[in-house]
Amino acid sequence: MSINLDKQVNRDILLWDNIADESEKSVLSGHPDIIAYENFEEQLLDKILMELTEKGNKPIKLVDICTGAGRIPEHYHNKIMNEEFPFNLNHIHGIDISKRALEMAESKLSGMDEDIVKRLNMTFELGSAFDLKEENDLSIPILVNLNNSIGTLQGYEGAQQLFISMRKAVEKANGIGIISCYSNNYIEDYALNIYESAMQVTGQPQWLEPTNYTSSEYKMLPKELKAFGNLSKDTYCDIYDQNGLLAEEDYKLTRAPTKVRAVNITGNIKTYRGYSSMWYSPLIINQWINSHWNGCKTYYIETKDLDEKLAPFGQLAILDCGNHLNNIF
Question: Same domain for 33 and 170?
């Protein structure tokens, strides 16, 4: 890992530790477009696990890279609770760089059924997506990086390092790697609304004006969740100071056309609080598949081709070292 990438990782650890709670509450568990996309990811994972279970002799290990507060372990715990678990899955392992996010995941774990936690061998690790352990072939390892987490991995260098690290981890074990991310073809329809709805978490996007309250002294609380179909170029929010006192009500922010055009071109989401995320182009994702996963069975899929209702704006990069998924894709 380069010195520059290492510095960016350390900076982002502080950022994610600070925003983990609000992100879980307001965005990952609150925005309708994000919830729909997460439902798509979970249904796809269920389908893949079912395929491997029906085919195979080996148990399955699921590694959730950038697990956050543990959405995927919670999903499979709940499926067992609801008696909807026909899978040969015997280990779920979550990895994240944020200590606070993992504290939230561990807290969820403590509230789960103890027998189910043991059955699924649920574990968490404070660690990097760039230094994944090489998996053994006692099970079929599935490594996943979901919900555009690749977009927050320190830009182009970090994203490519994920591709490299994921291949190294699963190749000898004939495992599977799945990267699920958002496409820059849908910035205008989805990204702008999502981040304009999340200012209490990540701060004011740099395409919105004016910039009177962009410092850390203030918290911006959007008045509504702007989802797909909301065509308004304006966002209204209430502004609170560090003491929690209302500084301004119904504060109006408007998109600056030149800045929106720049975001559409680059796919680079930036806010005034230091948050950054990439919505990569299909061209770039395909280039990385061909460069870093060459010689292996791979798939590139636009998620709308699998489920246009739940996941119209995403894309999948899939590494299938054991050729397990030919009946699905």
Answer: yes
